[in-house]
């Protein structure tokens, strides 16, 4: 339902149009009495209908006015936009279709009407009709770029990655800027091919992802998964280690796979050395490894166990649960029972809150997403690494 503000705003548009129109006539002819009374009266009648919430009748009137009033195009575009913003898309479509049917539109006005109608269809979820209109505008000197961006939006929603790649190539030619999205589209295609068992095709798609930094982690994760499927655990482990070296926040995703690769080649001792080495270089990894181990139930590594122990002992709230409050008792080894009790509780706690958050807009999700559905940024969603233990204190 339209709100009071809708009617007020629509009224403002109409008043602005009517007075603008009157001013134009006054300035060019020098006499106020040259305003045709019929059009002036129509605007006032339209305003009256809007203010009385008779939007259907007001719409009919505006549509008729659009056919005869050469000077009111902008007003009608604004009105159509307003209807769409308020969710009255059917009315927006009628306004824009009537504008398009008007004879004598210049190419720029026609492009604007087509674009607005395309946006109406997009809002209504009629993607195929929106796609047709935006495709007509891809060479428009004024709206070509905006039309291509809307096409990309449609192809992303429909997961038509080939078309999205093609459209981005057109955008790149127009803006002379490299699109980071293309790497991710190739990753989408590679992942689809991998899941359908066509590893050769998956590798081929991955070649297209090597063009920007964005998408590199994701491509490496897919490449490592392909290596695992081909039993090349050595190569897979190297790829996982490269990913962790670049972004340790992906520990939850990578650590279980990495451990599995070392296991497959009976390299458990080397796995321990690898972990010791990265913790020596960056002691903050201790907590990140503990977090990943608790969430993914890793308990067959001494180094990982020690990370989990020190995480519990050094955490004020957790250590108080098991009676370790002073520095002397902190040197004690925790019993397996204590550790299991706490890690089970932490895992349950972590399962209650979304583990990932967009670093740009704060959108939270249950799983790792490469494209934030809220702000549409690529690779901005990352693990939170927080059990929200402060919630237990209150
Ligand atoms: Zn976001």
Can you offer a commentary on this structure?
With 394 residues, the protein is an all-alpha fold. Among the domains are: 4-101 and 109-155, Alpha Horseshoe (Serine Threonine Protein Phosphatase 5, Tetratricopeptide repeat), CATH 1.25.40; 251-352, no CATH class. Helix content is 68%, strand content 2%. The chain has 20 helices and three strands. The chain has helices at residues 4-29, 37-51, 55-68, 73-85, 89-100, 107-123, 127-136, 144-158, 161-175, 181-195, 199-207, 216-229, 233-246, 251-264, 268-281, 285-296, 302-313, 316-321, 336-352, 390-393, and strands at residues 356-358, 364-365, 381-383. A three-stranded antiparallel β-sheet has the order 2-1-3, with no helix packed on it. Helix 3 (55-68) runs parallel beside helix 5 and helix 4 runs parallel beside helix 6 (107-123). It is elongated and about 90 Å long. Bound molecules: zinc ion.
Distance between the termini: 42 Å
Question: How would a textbook summarize the main sheet?
Answer: 3 strands, antiparallel
Number of strands: 3
Which residues form runs of ≥5 with pLDDT under 50?
18-38
Radius of gyration: 31 Å
Structural class: mainly alpha
Query: What percentage of residues falls in helices of 4 or more residues?
Result: 55-70%
Physical arrangement of strands within the biggest beta sheet: 2-1-3
CATH top level of the domain at 4-101 and 109-155?
Answer: Mainly Alpha
Measured by DSSP, the beta-strand proportion falls in under 5%
CATH architecture of the domain at 4-101 and 109-155: Alpha Horseshoe
* Average predicted confidence as pLDDT: 82
Q: Work out the helix count.
A: 20
Task: Indicate the overall shape.
Answer: elongated
Q: What fold name stands as the CATH topology of the domain at 4-101 and 109-155?
A: Serine Threonine Protein Phosphatase 5, Tetratricopeptide repeat
Cofactors, ions, other ligands:
zinc ion
CATH level-four homologous superfamily name of the domain at 4-101 and 109-155: Tetratricopeptide repeat domain
H/E topology pattern? HHHHHHHHHHHHHHHHHHHEEEH
């Amino acid at each position: 339902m339209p709100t009071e503000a809708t009617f007020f705003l629509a009224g403002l548009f109409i008043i602005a149009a009517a007075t603008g129109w009157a001013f134009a006539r006054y300035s060019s002819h020098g006499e106020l009495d040259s305003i045709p009374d019929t059009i002036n009266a129509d605007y006032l009648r339209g305003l009256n209908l809007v203010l009385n919430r008779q939007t259907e009748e007001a719409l009919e009137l505006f549509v008729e006015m659009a056919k005869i009033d050469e000077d009111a195009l902008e007003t009608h575009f604004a009105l159509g936009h307003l209807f769409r913003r308020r969710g009255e898309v059917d009315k927006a479509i009628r306004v824009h279709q009537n504008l398009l049917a008007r004879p004598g539109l210049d190419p720029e006005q026609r492009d604007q009407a087509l674009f607005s109608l395309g946006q109406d269809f997009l809002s209504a979820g009629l993607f195929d009709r929106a796609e047709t209109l935006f495709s007509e505008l891809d060479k428009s000197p004024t709206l070509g770029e905006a039309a291509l961006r809307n096409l990309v939006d449609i192809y992303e929603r429909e997961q038509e990655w080939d078309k999205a790649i093609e459209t981005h190539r057109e955008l790149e030619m127009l803006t002379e800027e490299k699109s980071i999205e293309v790497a991710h589209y190739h990753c989408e295609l590679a992942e689809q091919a991998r899941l359908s068992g066509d590893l050769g095709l998956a590798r081929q798609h991955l070649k297209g992802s090597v063009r920007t930094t964005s998408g590199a982690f994701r491509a490496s994760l897919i490449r490592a998964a392909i290596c695992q499927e081909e039993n090349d655990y050595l190569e897979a482990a190297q790829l996982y280690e490269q990913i962790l070296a670049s972004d340790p926040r992906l520990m939850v995703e990578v650590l279980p796979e990495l451990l599995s690769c070392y296991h497959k080649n009976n390299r458990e001792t080397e796995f321990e050395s690898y972990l010791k080495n990265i913790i020596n270089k960056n002691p903050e990894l201790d907590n990140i490894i503990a977090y990943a181990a608790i969430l993914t139930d890793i308990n067959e590594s001494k180094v990982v166990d020690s990370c989990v122990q020190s995480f519990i002992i050094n955490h004020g709230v957790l250590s108080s649960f098991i009676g370790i409050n002073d520095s002397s008792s902190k040197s004690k080894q925790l019993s397996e029972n204590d550790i299991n009790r706490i890690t089970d509780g932490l895992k349950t706690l972590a399962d209650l809150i979304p583990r990932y958050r967009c670093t740009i807009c704060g959108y939270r999700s249950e799983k790792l997403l490469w494209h934030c559905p809220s702000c549409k940024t690529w690779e901005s969603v990352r693990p939170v690494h927080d059990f929200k233990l402060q919630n237990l204190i209150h």
